[in-house]
Structures are given as C-alpha cells and as structure tokens.
Amino acid sequence: MGSKVRIAVVGLGKMGLSHFAMVNAHPDAETIACDGSGFLVDVLSRNIATPIHKDYDTLLEKERLDAVVIATPSRLHAPMVRAALDRDIHVFCEKPFCLDWADSAALTELAAEKGRVAQVGYHYRYVGAFREMKRILDSGALGRVTHVLAEAYGPVVLRPKRATWRTSKEEGGGCLYDYAAHPLNLLNWFFGTPDQVTGSVLGQVFSEGTDDEVFSTLRWNDGPTAQLSVNWSDESHRKMSTKIAMIGTNGRLYADRQECQLYLREPHDALPGYGPGWTVKYTTELTEDAWFYLRGEEYSAQLAEFIAAVRDGKAQAAENGFASAAETDRTLAMIIENAETGLPVGEARARAPEPAKRRGWFGR
Length: 364
Description:
disordered C terminus; Rossmann fold; alpha/beta
C-alpha cells in the first residue's frame, strides 16, 4: 500500500456524494468514484479531476484499490460487498447492511476470513450523546434497566407519490430498514440481540408497497423490555430525529442527537461527575472536533476511523463492524416475521422478581 489509501466511492446519490466529499478531503485518501448514471458521471467528469467509472465490475478490474465505500441502493449491497472482498478490498458499506440477514452473516464470515476492515455506516454510534449513554450504561450507574423507549421520526413520505428506491420494499426495505434500523442498531449496541420480538406492526400511511411506520416490543432475558416507535411520515420533524429513553432502578437516562440527560437517585462511584438529580451534557461538549465537517461530526468520524484502520493495517475498526450490523439485520428479520405471522419470534425467559426491600402499607 502506498502512502495514501486508494478508496472508490460507489453510488453518488445523496449519501454517496456526502461520502465522496468527505473521503476526497481526507489527507490520507486518494479518491475514485463510480456511479451507474451516465448523466451524473458526464457532469462530474467535466468538473472534477477524480477518475469516475460507470461500471462497478470495470472499476474493480481496472483500478488498484485499497478500499471501497458502497452507497448504492440497499439491494445491491450484498453482491457489491462480496465482489470487493473476493478481491481482498476493505469495505465500508452504508446501512442497512443487507436486506437478507443470511447474506450479512455470510459476508461477516468472509470479511473475517480475509482479514479485511469491514464497517457499516450506522453513524449514530459516533454521536457524542449516544456514546455517553453507552458509557453510562456500561458503568452500572443506572442500575438494572427495566424499560426502554426507542424512537425515530421524520418527513420522508408525506403524501402518495411515485416510489423511489428508498421507498421500495425490494430496493431499500422501506421505513423499517431505512429509519427503524438506526434505533435498533443502538439497542443492539446497548443490549445485544433481543431474545423475543412481539407486537410488531409494519403500517402504511401514504405508501402502497412498503411500510411508513414501525412499532414493536423487544425483550432481553437478562435485560430490559424495549418499545420501538418509528414513523417517516411525520412532518412535525424537519429532519430525522432519533432518541432513546430508559428507566433503571437508580434513575432515568435520555439521549438524542443534541444531548444526554441523566437523573440519578443516588450517585455512583463508577460515574464521577454525575451527582444525584439531573445532569445534562451536550453533544458539543462530548464530541471532538472533526477533521472535516459535513452533515455532522459523526459522519466524518466513522469514515476517519475506517480510513485509519485501513492505513494502519488493522483487522477491524473500533465500531460498526459487519458482525454488529448483521446483528441488526437479524433483529429486523425478527420484526418482519413477527409482523407477518402475528406470533412471537424467539423465546423470552420469565425473570424472577427481585425481593422487595421494604413493604408498603398494602404489603403488610
């Protein structure tokens, strides 16, 4: 490998163009691009010096690549990721990883076998407030978490209209894969794969061929019960809003893109700096300055970590590996199965109630 990492950004739609701008600005990256739209390639080729290909297979055959960033429609992820790994190329793939979780599991094994850096673009794991939520959970200060509410709302589909790849169930997976995947990935990060999924609803508001809203109940045998509430037909939000709230035996915890709020009944030795009552910390104070800002520090941070791992010859970036993304794809599949059959998916083990420390008036 030369002094710079040669990266091809594949798919120059809204997200792909953002990735291209960030990778192109990285001091350790040399950028190439690929998109199937002849018009877009012609326009860009006249205005930038970056080599741009119209065909992915030709790109892989003719260019010497260290890595690819795949930002194509979701149904293309599995074959494109496999083609890159077969050539020993490191892969950053936009979320969702694969529409079939069996593909996700197989590609996770292949990437590990090849020793390639393999990362999926679940950028919320790089948001300062959610990282602080993870740190607080791991400290044990919240006590036993009993209930979680995971939400995401936004204005993607606000009227009946011609479907795009994103709103097509076969192309993008609808609201479940495009929106609900984000809070679900955070839940997987916090608690792992749920043991049981029940009460799932994949509802339509304006779309005809896919879901616009997602509701589900997830249970962990050694963890909490979580309610999932997602709707991308909500015009009360200017853009996507993801938030997680949870209740524990020693307090309450909340995080969104802007801030992390913690209420503690009693302070905890493993969490210095947080006293009893409410403490609020903002993403700005929890986030290091990005080397390049576009859309949010978290987008730059995830790509910077990927590029550094490839540059330094690491086997994996710190977050968002294929294995964790496959775990989210498995959770999405559980919700689909539950919504289609109406039957619980997985098995929840009954938890023995904790003994009461003191009895109230009616418990005497």
